[in-house]
Amino acid sequence: KENIQVVNLGIAGATSxxxxxxxxxxxxxxxxxxxxxxxxxxxxxxxxESNIELFVNSGNFAMIALFFKKIIFKTKLYRLFKYFQVSxxxxxxxxxxxxxxxxxxxxxxxIKIYSEEGQKLLKFLLATNITSIVNIAKEENILVLLMLYHxxxxxxxxxxxxxxxxxxxxPKIDLSEEFHNSDNSLKKELLCDDGFHPNASGY
Length: 203
Known about the structure:
6% strand; 5 helices; 203 residues; mainly alpha; three-stranded parallel beta sheet
């Protein structure tokens, strides 16, 4: 029987950019055989350590506004407020119109997250960061396992991740299959009261 040790380095509210910036340090510290990667859910609303400005064609004023916005996002009080706000929205995704969810980081730059332009920007950001993380792991001879979220959320990251993951010849796990019934309804007994985050049974 093999001795398997699991190290949980998940960070609440972390974006793909933050994970990318932390990956070299984490891999050096832990030296894992396998890296299980599940990121993308927080990118549409959290700017902490985000490199999204690299993919936005905006004028100088917009870039200055983005700079100060990133400073605000680093405050713990604002991150806590935004975290609960988005969690509440995710809990009501099944009954709310997606048109009512066009707020947050991307709308502030004149981009609606569910528009064709917003989805293209988000996909490019996620694809770039995930590819970089996978390449860093491969350079260290670490096996990468890509994981999809148990349900979709603000910005529909799961739909984008399914497209992005197709280019990688690595194992993939779709958690949504475990959290949905045969009629595609959610297994609410596996979720917290917010309707999104897994509870003890879900984990």
